[in-house]
């Protein structure tokens, strides 16, 4: 645990007190920022890379791929503590939670030894329900549109998006991918669309028809890694590493609208529709916060210091909390999840 901060339970009384304090800051001469860290939740394991995050908002449980510890870590958000570590998850990176079936799927990317592990909730604890051997299965997503799991798999030189019913866990179909080298997936919530961040382009797949319906070239930067979506305004947010840039694109036409410089070594990106902000966790040691003024105008408003290599994140609209996974460093006894309250 960070020696300079201690975890505390995120009780409704504590969050209400915290929000009241923020509201009073201007009156006492303080300067509110875009978000404040309100908790630190330690976990167990060696130093090194951490995977992605997802959440069960109803039960206030956070899931994280603890890659170096080879475990799925489950946290009680309200109590501010680690609940379970599910072992045997070597190479765990992608995490997706299904509220439909109360399942968690873990993508363990280990080349020819890759697998999906699916955990189900029984009597308040998650246990391994099924393991599926699938080559190249590090990327997984849950679709709020059709309530299915989507993940990557390879057969020889061919790459597919494999689809499973998130409640019954039955295989539905495989969707052929036309570009083997992609870095991230984003599922639209209100349309049957999947956005793939591929090499210097975005590929759009209709998940109902399994067809590639559009390919949007990226010209304003290279090494595009992460993608998020503002569905109301039809805007894609694309995080790139070379140079470190956030690109905004029309999700219907592929027109690049603008770009904003951000900090380096990005791996994730999230959109806060309530505040019209984009949060970009950067391994350089910052969260770059970009404000959407309107659909076509964006500006960097803050770089929040974090820690080196802290670059996977999650914003929960239901809880209105932001989470970032932080690798162990010299000032910490263990890896941690830092919890922020956006202002």
Name the features.
four-stranded antiparallel β-sheet; mainly beta; single chain; 343 residues; globular
Which secondary-structure class do the elements indicate? mainly beta
How do the strands of the widest beta sheet line up side by side? 1-28-27-26
Order of helices and strands: HEEEEEEEEEEEEEEEEEEEEEEEEEEEE
Distance between the termini: 25 Å
Q: Give unreliable regions as ranges.
A: 1-7, 20-32
Can you count the beta strands?
28
Q: What average pLDDT do the residues reach?
A: 90
User: Radius of gyration from the CA trace?
Assistant: 19 Å
Percent of residues in beta strands = over 45%
Describe the biggest sheet?
Answer: 4 strands, antiparallel
| Shape annotation | globular
Number of helices, counting only DSSP H or I runs of 4 residues or more: 1
Q: Considering DSSP H and I runs of 4 or more, what fraction of the residues is helical? A: under 10%
Describe the structure.
The chain contains 1 helix and 28 strands. The protein is globular. The two termini are 25 Å apart. The N terminus is likely disordered. It is mainly β and 343 residues long. The protein is 4% helix and 54% strand. The strands form 7 sheets. Strands 1-28-27-26 form a 4-stranded antiparallel beta sheet, with no helix packed on it. Strands 2-3-4-5 form a 4-stranded antiparallel beta sheet, with no helix packed on it. A hairpin with a 2-residue loop joins strand 15 and strand 16.
């Amino acid at each position: 645990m960070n020696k300079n901060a201690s975890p505390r339970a995120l009780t409704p009384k504590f969050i209400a007190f915290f929000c009241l304090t923020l509201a009073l800051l201007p009156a006492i001469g303080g300067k509110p920022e875009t978000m404040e860290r309100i908790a630190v939740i330690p976990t167990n394991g060696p130093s090194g890379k951490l995977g992605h995050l997802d959440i069960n908002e109803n039960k206030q449980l956070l899931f994280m791929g603890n890659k170096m510890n080879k475990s799925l870590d489950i946290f009680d958000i309200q109590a501010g503590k680690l609940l379970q570590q599910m072992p045997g998850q070597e190479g765990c990176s992608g995490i997706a939670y299904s509220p439909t079936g109360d399942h968690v799927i873990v993508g363990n990317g280990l080349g020819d030894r890759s697998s999906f592990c699916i955990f189900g909730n029984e009597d308040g604890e998650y246990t391994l329900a099924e393991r599926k051997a699938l080559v190249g299965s590090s990327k997984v997503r849950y679709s709020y549109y059709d309530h299915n799991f989507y993940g990557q798999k390879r057969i020889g030189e061919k790459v597919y998006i494999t689809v499973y019913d998130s409640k019954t866990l039955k295989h539905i179909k495989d969707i052929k991918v036309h570009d083997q080298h992609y870095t991230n997936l984003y599922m639209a919530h209100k349309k049957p669309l999947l956005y793939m961040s591929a090499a210097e382009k975005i590929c759009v797949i209709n998940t109902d028809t399994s067809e590639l319906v559009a390919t949007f070239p990226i010209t304003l930067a290279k090494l595009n890694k992460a993608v998020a979506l503002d569905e109301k305004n039809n805007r894609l947010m694309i995080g790139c590493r070379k140079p470190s840039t956030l690109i905004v694109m029309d999700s219907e036409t592929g027109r690049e609208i603008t770009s904003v410089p951000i900090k380096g070594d990005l791996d994730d990106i999230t959109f806060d529709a309530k505040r019209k902000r984009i949060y970009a966790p950067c391994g350089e040691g910052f969260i770059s916060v970009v404000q959407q003024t309107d659909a076509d105008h964006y500006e960097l408003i803050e770089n929040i210091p974090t820690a080196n290599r802290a670059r996977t994140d999650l914003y929960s609209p239901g809880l209105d909390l932001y989470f970032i996974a932080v690798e162990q460093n010299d000032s910490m006894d263990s890896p941690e999840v830092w919890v922020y309250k956006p202002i």
